[in-house]
Amino acid sequence: MIQVEETNPWRALTSPRVLMYHFFGEPLSGRDPEHLFVTGENFRTQLGSLLRSGWRPVDLDAYLGWWSGRVRLPRKSFLLTIDDAHRSAVDLAAPILASFGIPSVLFVPAGLIGSTVRWSEDYAREQIATADQLRRLPATGMELGVHGFDHTRMVSLGPSDLRLHTADARLDLERLTGVRARAFAYPYGTHDPLTRRAVAEAGYAVSFAVAREHGSHARWRICVDGNDSRASFRFKLTPAYAVASLLGGRAWRVRHLVRDQVETMCRATSAGMGRDRGR
């Protein structure tokens, strides 16, 4: 049986930051209760801000190389990831990323390719990219990974279900797109020891959670959403946010409290700066 690596979570403080996005543009229904949509304008602004501030984009090879000690990277490095394979990742995000020369990883729920979102009534009309659309993405710098089979939460699943969402999903993605995925992202960011072991045994080089760091098969990520102001986006890249997020990542309620407080603080700061400029 494969032994799943468990590392000191605080090493993540010096690792390349991993940004997590979901949808882009505007929702078809006009509703976005989870703030998953980032507009094209805001996405361009965020990417431009990163590059102007000296942040260097890295691909999955460089990211894995840093963790193995084979690759040295600047302190301000980032890997950009996108969950769910929403159609907007193809139509909007991929061209914008290519224009900036920024590589990325798109995590695909392999059993829903060419279908629609089925894990949330709020987003049930949103389209998942087709196999043909996904096949074209690696040429733009967007690598394909697996996001389970149908976005089922994977905690407490039995062996056959875990196999469906890890090994079988990987085979389905390869059959439909020709891409053999190296990376996995947990739906909802949740996992447990059996889940991490199933992902490792399926042969993935790395897997990603959200604010939880459990070694190479549950790397920490920073969620970027439609609620982020310029100030909150910048703050999410700071060591202070990393410490708060990693501490809160051990309990989802604490994690959401940290996120909400950060966003409230940054919105208040931005409003105060606006009032000062108007005087």
UniProtKB/TrEMBL annotation:
It is found in: Secreted. Residues 76-279 form the NodB homology domain. The keyword Cell division does not apply. The keyword Manganese does not apply. It comes from the Bacteria. Keywords: Signal. This is Peptidoglycan/xylan/chitin deacetylase (PgdA/CDA1 family). It comes from Pseudonocardia parietis.
